[in-house]
Amino acid sequence: MSDEEAPLVLQTPGGLSVSYRGRLLYSARDPSSLPRRLAAACDPEPGRLHLVPSPLLWYGVAELLSAMGPRSALLCVETDPALAALARASLPPELAGDERIAFVEASSPEQAVEAAKRLGAFRACRLTPLSGGQALDAAAYAAMAAALSSEFEASWRNRAALMMLGPLWARNIFANMAALPEIAPSPLPHFRGAAVVCGAGPSLEAALPLLARLRPTVIACDTALGTLMAAGIEPDLVVCLEGQAHNLADFTCLGSRPAALAADLSSHPATFRSVRGPKHLSAVRITPSPFLSRAEAALAKAGVPFLSLPPLGSVGVHAVHMTRLLASGPLLAAGLDFSFEAGKTHARGCPSLLAEERRLNRLTRWPGQFAVSFRDRTMALSRGAGGAADLLSDPILLSYAAILAGMGEGEGRRKGGEGDLYDLRGAGPSIGGRRISIGEAESLLRSTGSGTRDAAAGGFDPIKASVQIRAFLEDELGRLEELRLSMRGMSPLSRQAFRRLVLESDYLCWGFPDQERARELPQDFLNRLVPQVEYWARRLTQLSAGVA
To answer: What CATH number matches the domain at 42-155, 3.30.70, 3.30.1050, 3.40.50, 3.30.2020?
Structure first.
């Protein structure tokens, strides 16, 4: 690096400033004054991550630490190697030892997100520039702030879902683990050529004649099953991700006919009993969890075939991700709308519409459908979203569409074109696939071939599975017994050992709004923990006794 390229530290009447690339990065009169004022005016709310771009001489950082709210932190980022070297050399010792600060030299939003995870969990991100260095790479810092905000928003959405449904998911996981010898899951098949992933949105209806005529490989979300069966289309695989009992009505259209089912370990236990035919298992990593890691390890040790998948929220996004792993050719999306028409949320033949039809009379016309269509936070899509102004959506559906759109970036290209997503819906928010017409889809399906499946190798040994699953349940029960005896004063567990057991059995706290306080173990937290330990100890005792 030449002297002209290196940042120059200058003495000014008010202190040191920095000159770089032909500009001063602090004031020439009083370099530290503005950073201190900006720091004092920061967001004082708790749980904020203050993204400080280009900290340079660290003016204002001490004031920001004093002014920010509790459980907040500073992520200082530099994208320029020369300025990063200056910042490292200028870092005051008192700041270097503060656990609330992290400094990283980063060039991508992903690096900033990883660094933020090491600092803790936050409610929001605040871009807090304290020097002129931010202007040298403003777009990169803005992208980092947007990525961090998106990450925190998704994290809190997932946390809210875990608080509401976590206890149910844990019950389902334990119940399904105990029933694995009876479920006898088989390895997921692999499909040659193109595959069509069908959601239950209204746009599925337009694709039905094509699917009935060509009979391609069809992967159906559970709610789309009734629509497909009514059109004479039997899907090659039905995907279920629902932990509640609501979606059991999706399978009534099968009657006694068999169907290949891919259900998650967290699905309602009755799901596996509702469908005749081969059962396949996925294990979604709902949240970073020692318990889920032990459950997956137990499945592997028991010789249970399963597919480990990330948490994607929507069964439609989940089905696309699963199909990308199972199909060798391009994917076509039909009915994955993440939007709906006023008064019609699903395609004909879905249980919600069938239930409404049974209620129709001269005075009652689709009350449930219109109530859903105009509930709080429902919004009209702009004409830019597929050219349709009459479609409705909501923030949750749009977030799923965004996940699907982001998930596909680069996936197909990594596989040489295999796994590319084509959008058959005609309208709706972007899902990251190229929009094609029914005619183009027919040409694509005919040219790539479809409809052949290869059974995956591997078998299931129910005796081996029974032994290993019983051992898993008894190990989990042993942890609970240690906690219970300690809480009753009958076991001399140290506080550190007690905390370790609580953190390892994290499902105990999935329903708590303050799960992070498990490390502190305040008395009010312990009071709520007692009935959880008692309940799960009884539950696991019953399940362990029932494993053949």
So the answer is: 3.40.50
Question: Between the CA of residue 248 and those of 172, 244, 271, 383, what are the distances in Å?
Answer: 14, 9, 6, 36
Q: For residues 407 and 401, what is the distance between their CA atoms, to the nearest angstrom?
A: 10
DSSP string, 107-130: SSHHHHHHHHHHH---SEEEE---
**What does DSSP say about strands 340-341 and 101-105: parallel, antiparallel, or unpaired?**
unpaired
Quick: pLDDT tens for 482-496: 999 999 888 788 899
Cα radius of gyration rounded to whole Å, the chain: 28
Tokens standing for residue 204: 């599925």
Q: Which amino acid is at 135?
A: A
> Could you tell me the CA-to-CA distances from 304 to 299, 301, 307 in Å, in that order?
5, 8, 10
Compute the Cα dihedral for 377, 383, 197, 354 and give only its sign: positive
Q: 548 pLDDT band (50/70/90 cuts)?
A: low
- 21 DSSP assignment: T
Secondary element (H or E) of residue 357: helix 351-359
Calpha distance 383→165 (Å, rounded): 35
Does residue 364 surpass a pLDDT of 70? no
How far does CA 303 lie from the centroid of its chain? 27
- As a residue count, the chain comes to 548
Asked if residues 427 and 386 have their Cβ atoms less than 8 Å apart, the reply is yes
Closest CA to 336 of 209, 223, 418, 211: 223
| DSSP structure class, residue 25 | S
On the question of pLDDT at 453 being above 80, the answer is no
Kindly report the number of other CB atoms within 10 A of residue 213's CB atom.
10
365 to 187, 205, 345, 359: CA distances (angstroms): 45, 21, 14, 8
Give SS3 for 406. Answer: helix
The separation between the first and the last C-alpha atoms of the chain, rounded to the nearest angstrom, is 71
Do 74 and 65 form a contact (C-beta atoms < 8 A)? Answer: yes
Which residues, in sequence order, are bridge partners of residue 379? 393
| Short-list 242, 271, 302, CA closest to 459 | 302
Residue pair 9/17 in contact (Cβ under 8 Å)? The answer is yes
- Torsion over CA: 481, 487, 493, 496 (sign): positive
Q: How would you label 144-180 residue by residue, b for 16+ Cβ within 10 Å and e otherwise?
A: bbebbbbbbeeeeeebeebbebbbbbbbbbbbbbbbb
CA distance 99 to 96: 8
Q: Which two tokens stand for residue 141?
A: 């810092």
Separation between Cα atoms, residue 266 and residue 168, nearest integer Å: 8
Q: Are 190 and 326 spatial neighbours (Cβ–Cβ below 8 Å)?
A: yes
Closest C-alpha to 176, from 237, 242, 247: 242
Does this model's pTM top 0.90?
A: no
How many helical (H) and strand (E) elements, i.e. helices and strands, does the chain have? 20, 21
Each domain of the chain, given as residue ranges in start order, spans 42-155, 179-338+409-454, 461-546
Convert the pLDDT of each residue in 365-397 to its tens digit: 666 676 777 777 777 786 444 444 478 888 888
